[in-house]
Write a structure and sequence with these properties.
Layout lengths: L25 H47 L14 H64 L17
Length: about 170
């Protein structure tokens, strides 16, 4: 937090000549100074290492991004007015093409199924016609047999009976 603007006392808060400060020996002050220097040196070393690694990673990521963009992105498409189409529209076009291909596949399967059904219906019609012909022939044969049995037409010679009166 920041310092308050008005101070109640005239003396600074962190002065070396304060009442409660203890006097230190020279060896203690030197060791503390060394520690501070060591700390600051190690901190500086860490900071510089961090900076270097960050700059390396930034340059690596930027370069790799550029390479990926070059490798992955297809050449930009241009509409009829000479404007470059966005990547989103290219993706949309790709999806539309895939959907159209799916529709074509579905349509072709429907067409194949319809053709198969037509073929089956045609075969069934032919089988039905065959059955009807056989049925008609059987009925004709049956009528002829009945004619022979009943003696209609000229199938059997006529029999004539005469009764002679006996005298």
């Amino acid at each position: 937090m920041g310092r308050s603007r008005s101070r109640s006392s005239s003396r600074p808060k962190h002065s070396k000549n304060s009442k409660h400060s203890k006097k230190r020996s020279r060896s203690q002050s030197r060791s503390r100074d060394k520690e501070k220097k060591m700390r600051s040196k190690s901190r500086e070393a860490k900071r510089s290492r961090r900076r270097e690694s960050r700059s390396r990673s930034r340059s690596n990521t930027a370069a790799s991004r550029r390479e990926k963009e070059r490798a992955v992105s297809p050449p930009e498409k241009i509409d009829i007015f000479g404007r470059a189409l966005s990547k989103r529209s290219a993706v949309d076009e790709k999806q539309k093409k895939e959907e159209e291909e799916k529709k074509l596949l579905i349509n072709s399967t429907f067409v194949l199924q319809a053709e198969e059904q037509l073929r089956i219906v045609e075969e069934q019609r032919k089988i039905h016609e065959e059955r009807m012909k056989l049925e008609q022939e059987r009925q004709k044969q049956q009528k002829e047999e009945q004619k022979i049995i009943l003696g209609k037409g000229k199938s059997r010679p006529k029999l004539s009976f005469s009764l002679k009166a006996s005298e």
